[in-house]
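fwd from M.: "can u put these together and see what the complex looks like"

so here's what she sent:
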Amino acid sequence: MLVSFSMRPARLIPLAALVLALAPLALVPGCGDDSATGGAGGAGGGGGGGPSEACEGVDTTGCTISLGPSDDVTNELQTALIEAESGSPVCLCPGTYLFDNELQVNTPDLTIRGVGATRDDVVLDFANQIGGDDGLTATSDGFTVENLSVKNTTGNGIVATGSDGVTFRNLKVWWDAGSVTENGAYAVYPISSSNVLIEDCEIVGAADAGVYVGQSTNIIVRNNDVHANVAGIEIENSTDAEVYDNRAYDNAAGILVFALPNLDKTDSLRCDVHDNEIYENNRDNFGEEGTVVAAVPPGIGVLILAADETHVHDNTITDNVTGGVVMVSMATLSLLVAPGEPDPDTDPDPETTYIYANTFSGNGTDPSSPLDLVDVVPMEDVLWDGVEKTDGSGDLCLSMTPPTFRNIHGVSNIANQANHTTDTTPHECDHTPLAPIVLE
Amino acid sequence: MRWLIGTVMIAAALALAPACSDDAVTPDPEPVLVTPPAFGEPYDKLSDWHLFADPLLQLPAERVVPYDVIAPLFSDYTSKWRFLFVPEGETVPYADEGTWEFPVGTVLVKTFAYADDVREPEGPRRILETRLLWREPEGWTAHTYIWNEEQSEAIREVGGRFVDVTFIDPLGATVETAYRVPNTNECADCHHQGEDEAGAIIVGPLGPKTLQLDRDADFGAGPVNQLDQLSSLGLFDGDPTPSSERERLVDPYDPAEDLSLRARSYFDANCSGCHRQGGSATDSDLELDFDSTDPTTSDAVVWGVCKTPTSAGGATCGNTYDIVPGEPDLSIVVCRMTATELDQRMPPLGSKIVHQEGLALMREWIESLPPASCTP
């Protein structure tokens, strides 16, 4: 039944058309040889290109491909990232790399490694970017970036979407402009990912959260220096996260544990925030208007929003002018930002929180709006909006040696001190400590 | 109805110009046959595929069938040629719904060019790139070939690049822009069909479907319906559904068509590559394919009505909902189509220039929507 196709145009074109169309002829076939010349060259394989001067004398042991800065580096590195075999590290030799486009990884088990002596020796600069808005993005499993700096991205710095096995190690991500709203939202940003490790990074100037982990599971965030961002570290709608040994300072808020409505992953469970130094998070909030984070009152050490089984312990939390630990429900959030569509799938209240063995000092000395309405100076170390489904369902434990504490018993009571309580007795209890996270 | 004839006419005319092969003056009388490479080894030169009897003129080789879509993707006023090649002895199961399933060995071809003056698409022009989707045994692979300035050859490009171009736009203004030849991963952003076990993206075609191809085109003997034409060429396994029962897009810019169908067709062509189930913008929960925007079968929040953004970060222009019926200026959809900042722009890839005609259509359509709960 199959007729052979034949679309020989010569047979199909009315002759009159041929004559008519001759007039506008501008292009006649050029007589170049077959190889591409001019600006449009660059056949596939460029990534493996010749040895770069930048790599001379640099130890590139274990690198499958090593690149140095060049005028065509966006193309060279992107080609290398596409053509690299799974498991073969792509290495960047010392120097500053200027990119004009977002870089994307879709190859499983790919490592991008700076091979300078320190992360400051290899700088990926996106100031001249005219395509894509993030710096480096990956969608495949097993994505590692290490020992380099990324700066000046329009959007996010480094993003992993839907990856199982993400490692961000010894990175610096920052913006030349300092801490301004125009900076990218998130500096390191795993979303809908699992088995995430973020360690030994320095993150400065993100207009939303420096370290942002969204809708992910099985997460370790440790030993990072996170400062001069709107939020230092944010764990949002994620399950089983351990955030420890970090230093979060000089942000508008230090560490955020959030459950937000209308997301695919609806809950935020078991975030263990411990042994961090969380201090002087008093920077003006420079977040983009309309975003949730822009509504966070500056001066908060740890902010828990609607997340369940959050543990906060053994941290040093000092000199955050609004409060050390603030715990609120969605009801309080809607005081601050336009409510989205109500989401019946998200539990609006924080439950089964356990706050113990932290060292607090110098917090709550000058609460910012709207927590200034509480009208207490200094604010207690732990402030709770007290919203729960039934009396006691919040299940908050402050251990047998509790910090100072205030429950405002509902958002409507915020300015009504008579209805607040500071008695810790109902919360002198313990929950079972969370098990350490083991990455797979 | 001269969508194809324009292409073919100029192409045929140019065929008379001397070519620069060894036998420069003698036109080659032999039919050109496609010579696909071994699977997994795409050629570095476009010419090696022999997809064209004359590449510069975009004259197809044997069995390479030109086609056009009803609602094209706007790509900054480039002109495009589209072709499909199905190997001898193979057929495509006819389907009303979804993109057609092509056999191994199929090559889909799309060439982009700038007319010096886009108001005269048949005047002088510069061919920029020829993109291929190649159905290999393991699945589709995406390849693009950048044309050299001499327009004598095109070389495969993996890593993408910007090409500086100048052209005169529909209003007569001279535009200089950096045209983006996408890297292979960027192809996958729009041609995303899901992910394999290791999270690597699976790509596939977007245009070849009944919704898009069910239109007239001139194959040389006057306008004929493309599905009838493809059917009579023996492409399909099975007969197309009778025309009266087929659902199809409409020309988004034809004011004689129904406004809602125009808007839905525009979305399908320009947004649904990413905004559909399994597309790369799944996190936004905004689905803009033709089916998802059908108000009779689909919940309005799915296509953005009174929907708060989920993953937009700060890219909301201070607005609260994707679409506010009656209020284009309060609708995030409009502001993101108007934006040129990299972190706001929609679509984020494939175009840099604000599409005024598309934007005007969106505004008109949003204004016409009946008020909903979020309409102030």
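replying to her w this: Chain B touches chain A through 96 residues (CB under 8 Å).
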